[in-house]
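Re: the request from the purification team.
They wanted to know what the chain is likely to look like in 3D before they choose a buffer screen. I agreed to run a prediction and write the result into the notebook, where they can find it.
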Amino acid sequence: LQSPTTFEPRGIGAPLFIEANTLKPGETMRLPIILGDAATPANNAYGTAFTIQYDPAIIDTASISLEFVDSWLGTYNQDFIGLYKNFGASGKIETALTRLNQQNISGSGIIGYLNLRVREDVTGNPTVRFTIEEPVLISAQEEMLPVEPMTTEAS
């Protein structure tokens, strides 16, 4: 598989995407989950929920896990928590992250990691897409904040 490509956001708001990398059959990957960037940070954020869509014909569904470390949202299990559920048959991961201290935070960058392994039986040069669906970003006051889902791919 070749170098990753990032598609432009569809509107305004803090971008939310998987930072794709070059994937190789049989290789285990740790891909950053990004919320906000230098141009459009996530301001006054408290919690987020979203779905990650992936191709189960290319990704080993049993290898999927999320880690919520190195996050600008806070320190995992101290002032923020996250959870996820992998629906391997449909190639979806539903996830939610929230702070615990009733204090908003602003920032950009890594909020966690998507861990996966590319299936060893993948042949040719397929395109792997990671699509963020149904994102929600809220403040501690439960105000909806602008967030823009993005699709990334490696081919």
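For the purification team: The chain has a mean pLDDT of 91.
Please add any questions underneath this entry.
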